[in-house]
Write a structure and sequence with these properties.
2 copies of one chain form a homodimer. Chain A has 13 helices and 8 strands. By secondary structure, the first copy, chain A, is of the alpha/beta class. Chain A has 2 domains: 2-169, 3-Layer(aba) Sandwich (Rossmann fold), CATH 3.40.50.720; 174-279, 6-phosphogluconate dehydrogenase C-terminal fold. In chain A, strands 3-2-1-4-5-6-7-8 form an 8-stranded mixed sheet, with helices on both faces. Chains A and B meet through helix 7, helix 8, helix 9, helix 10 and helix 11 of A and helix 7, helix 8, helix 9, helix 10 and helix 11 of B.
């Protein structure tokens, strides 16, 4: 089986490593616009060969689009055009509505499975990839009814091989939920990082006085701007609504603190504590 | 040596366990308003004996105030009154200005060292305490010039025994810095938890779709309301300023996302990325 991975970064690279660990006979053709990343991916054993997109796709049984979501939106139609009749295509993008809309009327729509693995770290590039990134993580598949049963089955089997859990939903639901449980956290971290860096000109102070609480809250501020900017754009309505609610909650806290209303403050924090029930 | 620990929770308990691991001949007298916590502390080997504050303090060589900051502010004068002539007193509160102002003109001010260990977890109570919590953490000592040299030396030695790093600053600087690098992170997490819980009525969705990013950003939302409410009150000017700046940054992001200005978004995120230099 030949898998063509387009975008040899954290997700694409980890998927390739995971699949290769499971099936020795799989050949990975890598495609990456960045020459250095492509070279690195060969060195790290992520890809067996690096080719141009136009050469790689026609040879593949499965194509994985693992580029930033803006690039996925641009590449998906040309890739579908080049896709062999029996091959399957998946993407790993963090937004699903625009991508699904883009392929909607393509004659090969059935060969595509819209996917989003709930996995990642704050690092990017092939060096960040590791074999177990996807293990025990959730793969969300959107609009499964629009994929051919055979194609869907192949992709589901791939996920099970990687020891992933499957969940299905509409692209609309996906983008709404993800705005709250993922995209918003990233913005809250980016904004926290900037607020603290702006105030604390002496970085030694941050280093010495920030405990593990700050490190964990600000961790996502290390994330890749070129990956995240297009996610926020593609999901801007949901993200803007989530961000609006978040700002409202923070204003609530500010009013409570300014008025020294500890009882109301405790009530709010007790509500926030309920997250324990879910995250343990 | 007899150490009296008032407040047998995460910090007081961990300090007791750390000291006992280092010096077998130390006796810990525990004081806790909560009977069940006091009992638990005996079971867990945190305290050797539990007494009323009025009984314990007069027997101690060192008294550690490890209650919520509102309680520290109430207890510190009565405790100083009861403190034996050669004994030392420290507090472990996350705010320092009000506490330092409260003791300022007490005749035994020199026997007090205002301290804040930059250590903690999102859990509380004696069960949350563990022997290595303070190890390799920073102890901030405020207004050291107001402590007797002998008292200061005793407290510094205790910190070194616990393998802590020492930093010195004014109470004013402490409260300002902590508002940014600690208190703000807690509010950002509490507010994030509420925003997501309000939207996602089906908690299964949060569980399945939230990756490790959300978990890490929202971790502090599990923190104790009764510990944090008085911290925000005592440090309300700095916290309110920090929160105001944070809300401004989030508004910035919202405007950028609403207007699909990816270039400006990337610029902001690149600035946030600089947190890598400090936190690695």
């Amino acid at each position: 089986m030949v898998i063509c991975v387009i975008g040899l970064g954290l997700l694409g690279g980890s998927l390739a490593l995971g699949v290769k660990a499971k099936h020795q006979d799989i050949k990975i053709l890598g495609v990456d616009a960045n020459e250095a990343n492509a070279q690195k991916a060969i060195e790290l054993g992520i890809a067996d060969q690096v080719l141009a997109l136009e050469e790689a796709v026609p040879q593949a049984d499965l194509v994985v689009l693992a580029t930033p979501v803006s690039v996925i939106a641009q590449q998906i139609l040309p890739v579908l055009d080049l896709l062999p009749a029996d091959a399957a295509l998946i993407d790993l993008g963090s937004t699903k509505e625009l991508i699904c809309r883009t392929v909607e009327i393509h004659p090969k729509r059935g060969q595509f499975v819209a996917s989003h693995p709930i996995a990642g770290t704050e690092y990017s590039g092939p060096e960040a990839a590791f074999v177990s990134l996807l293990q025990n993580k959730t793969m969300i598949i959107c609009e499964k009814e629009k994929s051919n049963p055979k194609t869907l089955q192949l992709v589901e089997q791939l996920c099970l091989d990687l020891e992933m859990n499957l969940r299905y939903m509409s692209a609309t639901d996906h983008d709404l939920h993800l705005a709250y449980v993922s995209h918003l956290s990233h913005i809250s971290s980016f904004a926290l990082g900037i607020t603290v860096l702006d105030k604390e000109k002496d970085e030694e102070n941050i280093f010495d006085m920030a405990g593990s609480g700050f490190s964990s809250t600000v961790r996502l501020a290390k994330s890749s701007p070129s990956m995240w900017a297009p996610i926020f754009t593609q999901n801007r309505q949901n993200v803007s609504e989530a961000l609006g609610s978040y700002i409202e909650q923070l204003q609530n806290f500010k009013t409570i603190i300014d008025s020294e209303d500890e009882e109301k403050g405790k009530e709010l924090m007790l509500r926030a504590n309920e997250i324990r029930r879910i995250l343990g």
